[in-house]
Amino acid sequence: MGAPAKESSSGEPAIHARGIEDRLTGVPGLEAVHERIAAWRADPPMMPHQAHVHAMLLGLRRLDAINIAYGAAAGDGALEEVAARLTHFAEEELDGPWLLARAGGGTFVLAANEACSRERWMMVAEQLADLIARPIAVPSGVLRLTPSIALIRALTDESVDSMLDRLSQTLEEARDQRGPRLAWADGELTPPGRTAAQLDADLLSAIDSDEIEVLFQPQFDLSTDALVGAEALARWNHPRLGRIGAGALFAIAERADHLAPLSRHIAAKALEAAGAWPGALRLSINVTPADLAFGSYVRQMLDLVRESGFPPRRLTLEVTEQALISDVSLAAQTMAEFGAQGIRIALDDFGAGFCNFRYLKVLPLHYLKLDRSMVEGIASDRRDVAVLRAIVAMARALDLEVIAEGIEDEAQRQVAAREGCAYFQGFLRAQPMSAAMFAKLARAGEAEG
Q: Does residue 363 contact residue 328 with C-beta atoms inside 8 Å?
């Protein structure tokens, strides 16, 4: 069966329309959902303990209005951005096997073989809805999408068609009734506020009790393969819900207005651990939109750096395009203040959405950090290599170094090195690890050097 023709965001085909791959968003069609779930059920010994098929159907409201106000091209671009956000979220937050598929129009299916409770799956959906609702930059402006999500924990012997039917019916009922944005396919609506309130309280307790773990994703020099530093990543091992990744953790903190204390806590722990690193290893810390908007952020971060004793010249702050949408001028001023202290700035997730090249002109940057979507095809697709080559050439013209994220095999590493990227991180060399494990890796690298 051939791939379907490119669809506009205004189309709303039935949920049972199937295709091998959707050309607009690059994710598979619904046929992949049937095949993947069948594979999960056919090979249960290879699955995690007590894994169960969970799924959610995410639908976007107001797409027609967006097409009218901004044009069909903007609507299509927004769908591409939504697909990218969904993919990135699943990569970061889901432990077991998962699959994202487009069901047509503004509707996506996310299925997973997860060993998790209903409460955990609902929490995942809440964080995903928050992520999709964040502003999206399109060439003609900034727009917001309103998601609705139907959830299901599939019955043991339930067919995929039955599961999709129940999800589709639940999503339509939620839209028609203008009810809660989350609804279970068995008719049970999201408990009003109880889970969110409990999570908010849990988070404050976790920060106060030092329960938030900071992991480190090693980074390597592409020309020598030497260890050059690490990116700090936050994880929360919730006693009831299990591991909560950085995306969900920060979404909870944003909703509860706890972003500032969480950000300070993570930065302090990362700087403390990095203070014991040998040599000139660099530390990268992620910056949130709330950080950039906080008037005392520069002073507080510099205080943390001084207290830790970590050299500012070895610190990099990673800023995403999402953090820049609200006030580019303020972000530029903040970055300049950090730069005056020797701290470097990286534009993170470059290529994940609409790349606003104005940022490269007005911001005092030192690095471009490529999103994994920009490197995953470079070992097999000439067009992907051409895009990478153009980005590296542009970066060189602006005196920026390029960091490749998501390098998972040797072929990708070789292409990234050949095309002039400076550094890389990814599962090819190392996964995120504890502070103790990274310190051991650093000492080993120093001994080899």
A: yes
Do 371 and 305 reside in the same domain of the chain? Answer: yes
d(CA 398, CA 40): 48
On whether the CB atoms of residues 369 and 318 are closer than 8 A, the answer is yes
pTM above 0.70, yes or no: no
Per-residue exposure over 357-380, b if at least 16 CB sit within 10 Å of its own CB, e if not: eebbeebbbbbbbbbbbbbbbbbe
User: What is the average per-residue pLDDT within 272-277?
Assistant: 94
221 and 299 inside one domain: yes
pLDDT digits (tens, 9 = 90+) for 143-183: 888 888 999 888 767 788 888 888 888 888 776 665 568 88
Q: 202 and 185, same structural domain?
A: no
Please report the DSSP string for 345-393 in residue order. Answer: EEEEEETSS---THHHHHS--SEEEE-GGGTTTTTT-HHHHHHHHHHHH
Residue 17 has pLDDT above 50, yes or no: no
CATH number for position 423: 3.20.20.450
CA distances from 424 to 122, 427, 429 (A): 34, 10, 9
CB 211 within 8 A of CB 237: yes
Long-range contacts of range 413-416, CB-CB < 8 Å, 24 or more positions apart?
413/222, 414/379, 415/378, 415/379, 415/385, 415/388, 416/222, 416/375, 416/378, 416/388
Positive/negative CA dihedral, 304, 243, 42, 1: negative
* Domains contained in the chain, number: 2
Cβ pair 260, 294 in contact under 8 A:
yes
Q: What is the largest CA-CA distance in the chain?
A: 65
Please state the separation of Cα 440 from the chain's center in Å.
28
Q: How far apart are CA 267 and CA 275, in angstroms?
A: 12
Tokens of 180: 């809660």
Q: Interhelix angle for 297-308 vs 328-339, to 10°?
A: 30
Q: Identify whether residues 220 and 119 lie together within a single domain.
A: no
Tokens of 227: 């260890």
- Can you give the pLDDT at residue 286? 93
Boundary residue ending a domain (165, 191, 217): 191
What was the pLDDT predicted at 204? 85
